[in-house]
Specification:
single chain, Udp-n-acetylmuramoylalanyl-d-glutamate--2,6- Diaminopimelate Ligase, Chain: A, domain 1, Rossmann fold, alpha/beta, 351 residues, 6-stranded parallel β-sheet
């Protein structure tokens, strides 16, 4: 069978789709393996790619993690590697080792499809070298998300690669009918294949406080035992407390980002459904804020970035399924079975 390469942007749920598809293929008697040419690390001290750890564990792969995920790349990778040919040879050698044992190989893309393009190791270049088909995953938020899907589809086709199709992932309930109707029909009118729309499910799509902490770092002033709380919304404390009260009450399980000197806002947020308070600017809060956060069991994280930089950094936050999260693993399989045309994927990969 042809290997399938999943591409998308952060939050599109590539790994969740890869996991669900692998589990479904195994149920159907196939022997799927997992490969991630270019990984990323969750924190400063953690040098493992967590998606690789998850798939190695769940699929029971005996290969070394360095074979499953041969490269990792941060924002300034060029100076660190320096030798594009050596990197490419490592990717090809590692893939061949995986492909010799598994059929098909499910290849997981890194955060953005263009990562390591300067080394010729962007997703499209690797897929061409490996003869893999492309499956596009899109986190549908608005019509611009659909434009992103079309752009990726056109690029894949113009490069002469096999386009397996498209899965809309983590679709908010108000947009689900539009994704299944308008977007699916538009894709078809352009000659591209729609394979399903997976509704947003907080248990699998919403990041945890720990994942925010991995990206932001900082000091945990309260709630260090509550880092597994889900974050379903983000509010920025840039308005007066009087103007903000309605938003604070309406947003559930939220992260609130405010300056450390906004004690009034912090205390108001703690009286609503808040999963984490992120205080910016390195400004320590009033002791009343720390005490109330501890009473409420709400994590309180102090970061030394300004608010603008903090907001920019949290765009990197994405939900990661952990090996022991049996509920999320089961939901990943259910999403493929219930909402996606996995049979069609199998047919295309067999060609």
């Amino acid at each position: 069978m042809k290997s399938v390469y999943l591409i998308g942007t952060p939050g599109s749920g590539k790994t969740a789709v890869a996991l669900g598809l692998a589990l479904k293929l195994r149920q159907e008697g196939f022997n799927p393996g997992y490969f991630k040419p270019v990984g990323s690390t969750a924190g400063v001290l953690d040098q493992r790619d967590e998606d690789g750890v998850l798939m190695k564990t769940v699929l029971g792969m005996t290969d070394e993690l360095d074979t499953i995920v041969p490269l990792t790349a941060g924002s300034f990778y060029v100076s660190g590697y320096r030798d594009p040919k050596k990197c490419r040879d490592l990717v090809l050698k590692s893939y061949q080792e995986i492909a010799a044992k598994f059929d098909p190989v499910i290849i997981d893309g890194t955060s953005f499809p263009w990562v390591m393009a300067s080394f010729g190791l962007d997703a499209i270049s690797i897929a061409r070298d490996l003869g893999a088909g492309i499956l596009v995953t899109t986190h549908v938020k608005n019509d611009f998300s659909f434009d992103e899907t079309l752009f990726f589809n056109r690029y894949v086709v113009c490069k002469g690669l096999t386009l397996v199709g498209n899965i809309f992932n983590s679709v908010p309930r108000p947009l689900l009918a539009k994704a299944q109707g308008v977007y699916a029909q538009l894709l078809d009118s352009f000659g591209y294949r729609w394979l399903g729309a997976i509704p947003k499910r907080p248990e699998i799509h919403s990041p945890t406080v720990a994942e925010y902490y991995d990206v932001l770092g900082g000091e945990i002033l309260a709630g260090e035992d509550k880092l597994d709380l889900l974050v379903e919304d983000v509010l920025i404390g840039a308005m007066t407390i009087e103007s903000a009260l309605d938003s604070l009450r309406r947003a559930l399980n939220k992260a609130v980002i405010i300056g450390g000197d906004r004690s009034d806002y912090a205390l108001a947020a703690l009286e609503t459904s808040t999963s984490v308070l992120i205080l910016t600017g390195g400004l320590y809060p009033h002791i009343n804020v720390v005490t109330r956060a501890k009473d409420k069991g709400v994590p309180l994280i102090l970061v030394h970035y300004d608010t603008v930089t903090t907001i920019d950094r949290i765009s990197e936050v994405a939900r990661r399924i952990r090996p022991g999260d049996q509920k999320a693993i089961a939901l990943a399989l259910e999403n493929i079975e219930k909402y996606c045309d996995w049979q069609r994927v199998v047919e295309i990969l067999k060609v």
